[in-house]
Amino acid sequence: MSTRKARRTVVTGIGVVAPNGTSTEAFWKRTQEGMSVLDRVTREGCEDLPLRVAGEVRGFDPVALIEERYLVQTDRFTHFAMAAADMALDDARLGRADYEDRPFGVGVVTAAGSGGGEFGQRELQRLWGQGSTYVGPYQSIAWFYAASTGQISIRGGFKGPCAVVASDEAGGLDALAHADRSVRRGTDAVVVGAAEAPLAPYSVVCQLGYRDLSAAEDPTRAYRPFTSDACGFVPAEGGAMFVVEEEESARERGARARAEIAGHAATFTTAAHWEESREGLAHAIEGALREAGCAPEEVDVVFADALGSPAADRAEALALADALGPHSRRVPVTAPKTGIGRAYCGGPVLDAAAAVLAMEDGLVPPTPNVFDVCHDLDVVTERARPAELRTALVLSRGLMGSNAALVLRRPA
């Protein structure tokens, strides 16, 4: 029996800042083309570190997008989030005039896994190199995981329920679920998503301890999940923000309902023991489908977690088989992130954005750099596949053991 609520949460706005595009339109164009933008790391201070390949956001000018008073007190990951939030609000046509008489009706939720490493490193270098008087006052807040939620809410005048999911990578999907539950409880709208900037030297050094991080030097072979050449994942920066609203109020103000958040579930399994993630991920998929009132055979496309290590890929393939049964061998599976890298908490929300766009255009985007699939999955490779898409399943697992599944549905 479905546990779906009476109030329905719909996506009315999407904003994207990603390695393959600093707008939603550019991101989707290159995603559906299967373009890979993975390349050698060029960020200052990272050139001599063992990480060779990453997904960098290039051509992003925060000065042109964000007021100076916010720039000086925020890190790159918050710049991405604020810019993407602006795009999402514009897309939803949600302006101050729509909520100035009800500022407590709009909330903000973001997820973060790494925080503001670049800002924090710069200020600590000043502390040890020049002394405490050279450390700015914003060192206390700019690196913090909650910074994006706080700055977006202050900048936009949003006084409704605000939160941050300081979590594993799957926190990106958990943030969307948190926003959905806020709308169920009566909030009119929530600005929600995640963005990461983990390519500063300090942040990269922290990541070098991840045994699943790819050390490959060839960008075309560095991140190839579900293949016999799988050698780990490639990190990335960027992310996506959404505006989600109660369906009826969104329609009343003339907003377009782009997708419904239909179901979500999350579990936890032992960190980095990928064989154990099979059960946890399968349980999350089953829970999300149950909340959505969705049968396994109704899933039209799967946006896979696609970690890129043999054990993790095998566990994901088996989890899909456990949860979807025979349908797991027929449903199209895609992992567009192989062309841009895994942006930690920003990764699954980029997948969610791609899922909404895929349902709108009736097109399953391909999985770049992947050809010889060695699992019993219908992974879409080489070129996009036209398909009638009504329901999308988005999956995410974190390196510390979190698992999450999100069901998105195209509005009737």
TrEMBL record:
Domain Ketosynthase family 3 (KS3): 6-410
InterPro entries: Beta-ketoacyl_synthase, Ketoacyl_synth_C, Ketoacyl_synth_N, PKS_Beta-ketoAc_synthase_dom, Thiolase-like
Listed SMART domains: PKS_KS
Keywords: Acyltransferase, Transferase
Superkingdom to which the source organism belongs: Bacteria
Membrane-spanning residues: none
Keyword Cytoplasm attached: no
Family: Belongs to the thiolase-like superfamily. Beta-ketoacyl-ACP synthases family.
Protein name from the UniProt record: Ketosynthase chain-length factor
Organism annotation: Streptomyces drozdowiczii
